Amino acid sequence: MEAAPIRKVKRVIVDRNLCIGAGSCVVAAPTVFELNGENKAVIKQQGSVKNSGPAEKEALEDQAIPYETLLTAAQSCPTKAIIIIDEQGNQIYP
Amino acid sequence: MNEVKYLIVGGGVAGTTAAETLRASDKEGSIAIVSDEPYRFYSRIMLSKPNFFLEKIPFDQIWLKDEVWYRQNQVSLLLGKKAIKLDPQSKVVSLNDGSAWHYEKLLLAVGACARRWSVPGSEKRGILSLRTLDDAKEVISRVKNIKQAVLIGSGFISFEMADMLTLAGVKVTLVILESYYWEPVLDETSGRMIEKVLTEHGVKILHRSEVAQIEGEETVTGVLLKDGTRLPCQLIVAGIGVECPLDWIKEAGVIVNRGILADEYLQTNFADIYTAGDCAEFYDLVLGERVILGNWVNAQFHGRTAAANMAGGHQPSKMVSFYTTQGMGLAIAFVGNARVTPDREAITRGTPEAGSYGRLILHKGKLVGATLLNLTREMGALAKIIEGGADLSAKKSLLSDIRTDLTMI
Q1: Do the chains contact at A22 and B27, CB–CB below 8 Å?
Q2: Does B134 fall in a domain?
Q3: CB 3.0–4.6 Å: which of A90, B24, B267, B303 could bond B18 by disulfide?
Q4: What are phi and psi for residue B371, nearest 5 degrees?
Q5: Largest Cα–Cα distance in chain B?
């Protein structure tokens, strides 16, 4: 079993070209993701900003979202369209 | 006899998510997945997406787990093997390679198969249903060299294929039995709205039409319709729905209706046998009825829930599922249980002229589902209303007014 170290999320991005609007992220993390009028996932940020990002973790509407939940949302995407970046600027997923 | 703690039949999204969830809570228990396909877990939902066919999404993006994942998580993957017999008393599943597997907990996540199309000539090459990666590979290899394609049936597959094929420069004729697209799942207004974009993109639609015969030697060269019309084509995609081949499960005494019957915990009539995904006919707590919901998010959620319960939990599967697609400037979304039965009422919202049109489906005053055309932005709010289960009998006119903010209902 791989022991995944707990890392801090710095940034979340949705790749609009990959997103097909399956909505797995919306199910896994409804406080962070929703589908827009074009069936693309958008990231809910403070001040009613909703876009595909890059969105800084501290700018999220739900700043308290646990790392595991964000990772589950990204991992559940059937096109690997959600990119998660850690504080060192490394890509955590995919 | 092979011994395994958790045996999962089906290597798709429900089965693989279950394996992942089981491993997270049980580090030691052995897990085996049996799949009748030769491939590890891939994105079945991507198979019909135009960006995938047109290689805007790289082919390798289809693989959702690499071989390392199975190894690291100690999930045995038995590929290209079919489960053919189940003995629930001695808890053994037999495979078509002669092997037998004794389990402690069994998950039946066998999915659904494309419905067989029994038309004279349907065994020829070039006729596909787009259910498996092999189907998709064949479409990809054919699409570059063909001029005309015929699509059978009105639903998600035909819509997505029409989009992809027209983008690829193929002339598309759509042959449907119904008098409008997606009848009777959608109302005529919705159906015509979809037909309008299809037609604008060059798709020719033939209503109340049926194929009498497929022409060609080994490979399809055309179809002959019952009214005598001949349509030359080099590819046919039959999106005529799915069915579940459940004979071996039924013979074992597992209760089967259209799908495998299960309660809200996804448990079948045998305590150690669970089911998940497209094959599960489960008791949906939100909708208050037994349903089969064949979509990605439902299968994924089922995988998580069934696994939690197989590992000793007691967690009901409670969610509002949905499916969306978009193409040709039209976004289509179905939420909850969108079927209109005689005891249900559909409230319309928006107009085709304004570009957005939806139907909110009420059962005994409660919202149970919706069909949305260019209204996906309201899907989240609608899912919340469905989940809340409030009586909306007095709010019908508000619901039908497009200006109403549904998050305020």
Answers
A1: no
A2: yes
A3: B303
A4: -115, 130
A5: 65
For residue B18, the enclosing domain spans 2-45+62-112+244-310
Q: Taking the domain A9-93, which CATH number applies?
A: 3.30.70.20
- Check: CB of residue B127 under 8 Å from CB of residue B214: yes
pLDDT per residue rounded down to tens, chain A (94 residues)? 444 555 688 999 999 999 999 999 999 999 999 999 889 999 999 999 999 999 999 999 999 999 999 999 999 999 999 999 998 999 999 9
In this structure, the answer to whether residues B272 and B370 fall within a common structural domain is no
Beta-carbon separation of A37 and B296 below 8 A:
no
Q: What is the pTM of this model?
A: 0.93
Show which of B238, B261, B285 is a domain's final residue.
B238
Which of A31, A35, A62, A83 should one mutate to test binding to chain B, selecting the residue with the greatest count of B CBs within 10 A? Answer: A35
Q: What is the ipTM of this complex?
A: 0.87
Question: What residue segments make up the domains of chain A, in order of their start?
Answer: 9-93
Please tell me if residue A5 touches chain B, with a CB cutoff of 8 Å: no
Of B64, B319, B379, the CB nearest to A78: B64
